[in-house]
Amino acid sequence: MINESTSTPIQTEDTIVALATANGAGAIAVIRLSGPQAIQIVHTVFKGKNLLKQASHTLHFGFIADGEVVLDEVVVSLFIAPKSYTKENVVEISCHGSPYIIQSIIKLLMVKGARAAKPGEFTLRAFLNGQLDLSQAEAVADLIASDSKASHQIAMQQLRGGFSNQLQVLRDQLIHFASLIELELDFGEEDVEFANRDQLKSLILEINKVIFELVRSFELGNVIKQGVNTVIAGRPNAGKSTLLNALLNEDRAIISPIPGTTRDTIEEILNINGVNFRLIDTAGIREATDAIEAIGVQKTMDKISTSALLVYVFDVNELSEAELKSDIESLQRPGIPTLAIANKIDLPVKRSITFGSSEAIKYLEISAKEKQHIDELKQLIYDTAIQGRLTGEETVITNIRHLEALQRTQESLERVLYGMENPVTSDFLAMDIKQALYYLGEITGTVTTDDLLENIFSRFCIGK
Ligand code: GDP
Fold first, then answer.
1. Which residues of the sequence carry a binding annotation for GTP (predicted)?
2. Ligand 1 pocket check: which of 255, 266, 268 to mutate, most ligand atoms within 8 Å of Cβ?
3. In this structure, are 346 and 233 located in the same domain?
C-alpha cells in the first residue's frame, strides 16, 4: 500500500511566543503565543478578568505585570483551540509598540513557560495541525512578500487552495489504481488485471495535461513574483536614460549629452497594470572605445540573455534603417520579444523609417523628452510581456519547489505510460506510480520529510 509518511519530530507540545508585528517602535505591537499553555501563561501575568474563564474570540483590556511592576496596558485576544490560525490555543497581546515594552513582555512570558518561536513556526503548526496544506503555507510567505497587485493575486489564489485541490483529486484517483495494481501483484503468477489499463491511461493523460499547464505557468509566475526583467538598450544618446525617467516620472538616471555616460546598469521598478517590471538601463552598445565601456557592453549582452523583454531605443534622426536592423539583429536573443522604439519624434528633421511591426519585433514612435506616447509604450510593454496570460482566473505556480516536483511527477508518469505500452511487469508499473504519487504528495505536503519542512519554514520571518 502507499505510505503517507508525515513523520515529524517537531515539538508542538510546548507553547511558543514571538512578536508578530514588525520590529522597531510603532503605535501598537502584537505579541503572539500558540500552544496548549498559551492562555494559562498569559493568565499568570495579566491583571484584569480571569482569562481561563473567557470564551474564544473575545478581547480583554488589562495590564501585564511582572509581580508588582506594571509593564504595559494591553488588550488580549483569545482564540481557543481548534478555532485559531494554528488550531492550538492562541493569545495575541496588543501592547504599546516600544521595543523595551515588547522585549520585557516576551521575556516575562518566557520566564512563565513559553519558548521563543522559530521562523515560520506558527505557520508550521498550522500545517502540522491540518489547517493549511504545504503549498498554502508557502503562499502565506508569498503573500507577506507580495509587492504588486499581480503577485498578491497569485499568492491569494494559492492560499485559497488553488492548484493543490485539483492535484489532490487526481492523486486520490491514482492511489486507487496503485492499490489495484498492488492487488494484482498479490496474485503472483496468475494472469489477472484488476486495474483497467485504458482507464489508467486516460487518468495519466489527464494528470499530465494539468501538470503541463502548471509547468508552463511557472515562467509567468516567476516573472511576476520577481518582476519582469526588461532591458532598455540602444546606442549612446538614443535617449535611454530620458526614457527611463519618463517611464518612472522622475529624474533618477543621469541624463547627459555626452555619449556613453550610463556606464553601469541602473535598475528601477515600474508597475504597469499591477505587474512589476524591472527596468534595466544599460550602457551604450556602440563599439567600445575604452575598457570600462567594454565591460558595460558585455553587461548589456548578458542582461538581455536573462531578460523577458528587450526595449531597443534609437534616435529616429540619427540611425539609418540598415543600422537599426543590424543593431537589432546583434542584440536580439531567441524567444525574447523585442520592441523597436523610435525616439525624438518631437524634432523637426525626420528620417523616414519604414519599419513595420512583426511577430518578433513591435515598433512604436515616441518622444522621451516631451513625454509623447509614453502611456502607449507602457501598454505595449505590458501586452508584449504578459500576452494575455494574466486574467485573474488562472492557476499560476511561482515556486521552484513545486516546479521540480511537477517535473519529476511528469517523468514518473511517462515511465508508467511506457510500461503500459511495453512488456513491463506490474511491479515496475506499481513502482513508477508510487514515485509519481510521492512527488505529487510533496507539493501539498501529504508526503514530507523533516528536511523539506525545515527548508520551507526557515525562510519565513519569526512571528509568522
Ligand atoms: P542615453 O545615452 O541613451 O541614455 O541618452 P540620454 O537619455 O542621456 O539622452 C541623450 C540626449 O538626448 C540628451 O540631451 C536628451 O535630452 C536628449 N533626448 C532624449 N530623448 C529626447 C527626445 O525625445 N527628444 C529630444 N529632442 N531630445 C531627447
1. 237-242, 256-262, 281-284
2. 255
3. yes
